[in-house]
């Protein structure tokens, strides 16, 4: 199991799937599980509350059916009152539990799948044709993926530094846009959006920041 408290891994996953995604990984059941089973694991109190509500509904249906048949319902009515009390208690216990919805779970799982961090098997019911997706974590390649992302970011930083070095920039004082010198001359140094006079932008400080980031990457390479 990967160390989710490792700053490098935590930061990477936070950008990829957010805090809910990290919570999902921390609490993912062992083996192959469905998205609904994962959702129930992430929302234990809500799962209990739903089960209690379902029990009340089931008992009410049984009472209605018994009455239609002319059968005794006292025991069922006693059971439904007890079930309603359980449901109320379950709702009261929800407290501040943050809900992670089934749609959120599915979105996180598919993002992980796209990045090869989950294995997904599909099962089709022979009678209904309904597809069931079964998921299992596979985070073995995360360090390789992080290294690829770092190299990609490094290349982008170098390209951006070259772009900043090789151009002179003019900006709109209303923050409409930023143009290189040739583009600014085409608009006669007027903002094409609001008509304000464009002003020269000194990008030396930004280039220093880029140099610093590039140096940091090279030191850890």
UniProtKB/TrEMBL annotation:
Task: Report quaternary structure and partners.
Answer: Monomer. Interaction with RNA polymerase subunits RpoF and RpoE is necessary for Tfe stimulatory transcription activity. Able to interact with Tbp and RNA polymerase in the absence of DNA promoter. Interacts both with the preinitiation and elongation complexes.
The name this protein carries in UniProt is Transcription factor E
- Entry GO MF terms: DNA binding
Residue ranges occupied by any Transcription initiation factor IIE subunit alpha N-terminal domain in the UniProt entry: 77-212
List the gene name: tfe
Coiled coil spans: 49-100
Q: What is known of its domains?
A: The winged helix domain is involved in binding to DNA in the preinitiation complex.
Which Pfam family name is an example for this entry?
TFIIE_alpha
What is an annotated GO biological process for this record, any one? transcription initiation at RNA polymerase II promoter
Function as written in the Swiss-Prot or TrEMBL entry: Transcription factor that plays a role in the activation of archaeal genes transcribed by RNA polymerase. Facilitates transcription initiation by enhancing TATA-box recognition by TATA-box-binding protein (Tbp), and transcription factor B (Tfb) and RNA polymerase recruitment. Not absolutely required for transcription in vitro, but particularly important in cases where Tbp or Tfb function is not optimal. It dynamically alters the nucleic acid-binding properties of RNA polymerases by stabilizing the initiation complex and destabilizing elongation complexes.
Q: Does the keyword DNA damage apply?
A: no
Into which family does the record put it? Belongs to the TFE family.
Which UniProt keyword terms apply here?
Coiled coil, DNA-binding, Transcription, Transcription regulation
Q: Which organism is it from?
A: Methanimicrococcus stummii
Carries keyword Membrane? no
